[in-house]
Design a protein that fits this description.
Blueprint (H helix, E strand, L loop, with lengths): L1 E2 L12 E10 L2 E10 L1 H19 L7 H6 L6 E6 L1 H16 L9 H6 L12 H8 L8 E4 L6 E6 L10 H15 L4 E6 L2 E5 L8 E5 L9 E5 L3 E6 L4 E4 L2 E4 L2 E2 L4 E2 L4 E8 L2 H14 L1 H10 L5 E6 L3 E5 L6 E3 L5 E5 L2
Parallel strand pairs: 18-20
Antiparallel strand pairs: 1-9, 2-3, 3-7, 4-6, 5-6, 7-8, 8-11, 9-10, 10-19, 11-16, 12-13, 14-15, 16-17, 17-18
Helix pairs in contact: 1-6, 6-7, 7-8
């Protein structure tokens, strides 16, 4: 979500104008607002780029690159050659899995599917079922090697394993969109991909964008962050879940247990330059829990800022946000995390 006061269209020249576009993709509602030359055509191009990414990254479209790879069970090992842009995405995902000790895991699809989140036929699987599915989620068993000078690569993994870019797909799409907008002369833009917000530059009047922070306890934003050239991305258990026998099971999984995450966190919001990085971190740090998330930030504080909301209605945020974050939702207490 975002709040913005756009520049009056009457001040726009014929060449530089503000244009907006809304559409559905990647199972969510997306909106674009951009300022620059031929901004309406650029917005259309962004929508086309995202449609192309979805066509290749979807785990449910039978024609997609990932679907075909996931469902290739012709031998004990399977491999696929992927173009450069996807090779970078897959390599990033495997590197993040290593860096976060598996808190981010792009091979969890068998677990997610087992619990019914891919089909909406939700259920709580047995311990033996979970144990068996976990044998197919060892990301260290995935190998990726450069195939040629173009940057294309070959990915290989054993039969039954499946890749899923759902945790980073929208962030990856946002980065691609921003990159294309810059190349077309767009100087100011804001993209809202189902709550994943990314900005290019500041607003057309030179002021920062005011991005609403997703609120795990209600529809109204938790507050707002003043940003330029940043992604603001949130993950939380409140977004998607099912209940059985009075217990809630969320859509974010702990790759070590094969079960939905259960910790003190209600949501994690990441502010970073890259949407891909922010998307991966919001999930990873949610899985880690409060203490490990804070430790991770202290070791990597130069690359991102974060807001942690806890189930007890308290929040903690890093000191890099203290001058740009405004809280509007009533909370019990707040803590500023220092380096």
């Amino acid at each position: 979500m975002f709040f913005a006061c756009s520049k009056d269209d009457s001040t726009n020249t014929q060449e530089f104008k503000t244009s907006a576009k809304s559409f559905e993709a990647m199972n969510t509602f997306m909106t674009l607002k951009s300022y620059g030359p031929k901004s309406d055509a650029v917005n259309d191009s962004v929508a086309s780029i995202i449609a192309g990414l979805e066509a290749n990254l979807s785990t449910t479209k039978e024609s997609s690159l990932i679907y075909k790879f996931n469902h290739d069970n012709s031998g004990e090992e399977k491999s696929i050659t992927i173009p450069p842009e996807f090779a970078k995405l897959f390599l990033f995902s495997l590197n993040m899995a290593q860096k976060t000790d598996g808190a981010f895991n792009p091979t969890l699809y068998p677990i997610v599917h087992l619990w019914g989140f891919t089909t909406e036929k939700y259920r709580v699987p047995s311990a033996p079922e979970i144990a068996e599915a976990l044998t197919l989620t060892d990301f260290t068993m995935v190998t990726i090697s450069e195939k040629d000078e173009s940057g294309a690569a070959t990915i290989q993994m054993k039969k039954g394993m499946m890749m899923d870019m759902g945790a980073v797909g929208k962030g990856f799409a946002g980065d691609r969109a921003i990159q294309m907008m810059k190349s077309k002369g767009i100087t100011s833009a804001i993209l809202d991909f189902g709550g994943n917000v990314q900005t290019l530059g500041c607003k057309s009047d030179g002021k920062p964008w005011k991005v609403g922070v997703n609120n795990p306890w209600g529809d109204a934003p938790l507050g707002g962050i003043a940003v330029c050239n940043k992604a603001v991305i949130t993950s939380g258990g409140y977004e998607r879940y099912f209940e059985q026998n009075g217990k809630r099971f969320i859509h974010i999984f702990d790759g070590h247990t094969g079960r939905p995450v259960e910790n003190e966190l209600a949501s994690v919001t990441i502010v970073a330059e890259s949407g891909l990085y922010a998307d991966a971190l919001s999930t990873s740090l949610f899985v880690m829990g409060k203490d490990k998330a804070i430790e991770f930030w202290k070791n990597n504080h130069e690359s991102f800022q974060m807001i942690l909301t806890m189930n007890d209605h308290t929040i903690a945020y890093t000191d890099g946000l203290k001058d740009v974050l405004t809280l509007t939702h009533q909370i019990k207490s707040k803590t500023i995390i220092q380096k």
